[in-house]
Specification:
mainly alpha
């Protein structure tokens, strides 16, 4: 039952927002009393904390599954981005933006996990891209990770971009294109153009 609550709460938080979704809403959706819900979680903050960790773990597992596929480095980056696009397709306001605003401690803990996952993903992707001749061999991998990290997470740290999910997703794709163009070989640019065409068709 605890896992059922966590999964449903995570789904509702992503779709309806961390602020808008109440314990009453979650209990009603699960067909239980609020009293039963509070037996498992003493308050909404504790449920937000646990459900965001569960969502992070699911994302991490899904990304690992993508990385186990036989994608080239550029294709892999777009496949990973598609995970987030699919996950947030029914969301209006950015979950990360809301989490930071209303649950800063949970946001800080999540960011620690996200940073580690993000860094590992990008380093392995850069290594693969260089080996495949899609990225330039002379790039400073550590510096490229830091550049990309600053751009991606800067979207959530700044008030410039608002909190509308679809707009943020567009910006994230722009950042991905910017990142790959900065490091790609001629071969890599051709693959990038191919993936952009596929993405725009979808």
């Amino acid at each position: 039952m605890r896992n059922k609550i966590i999964n449903k709460a995570g789904e509702m938080f992503l779709t309806l927002g961390f602020k808008s979704t109440t314990m009453d809403d979650i209990a009603k959706e699960l067909g239980m009393s609020k009293k039963t819900l509070y037996k498992y979680f003493p308050n909404k903050t504790s449920l937000v904390d646990v459900s965001t960790e569960a969502v992070h773990n699911t994302i991490s597992e899904t990304i690992n599954a993508v990385k186990s596929q036989n994608y080239n480095a550029v294709e892999e980056e777009f496949a990973v981005k598609a995970i987030f696009k699919e996950m947030l397709k029914n969301s209006k306001a950015s979950p990360m933006y809301q989490l930071k605003k209303y649950y800063p401690e949970t946001y800080a803990k999540l960011m620690e996990r996200e940073v580690c996952m993000f860094r590992d993903c990008i380093v392995s992707n850069l290594t693969k891209g260089i080996e495949q001749g899609l990225y330039r061999a002379d790039i400073d991998k550590e510096l490229m990770v830091n550049f990309y990290f600053t751009l991606v997470f800067g979207v959530f740290e700044s008030e410039l971009y608002g909190d509308e999910v679809q707009e943020i997703m567009k910006i994230e794709y722009e950042i991905l294109e910017y990142h790959i163009r900065a490091i790609a070989t001629e071969k890599g640019v051709k693959e990038l153009e191919k993936q952009l065409k596929i993405t725009n068709q979808n």
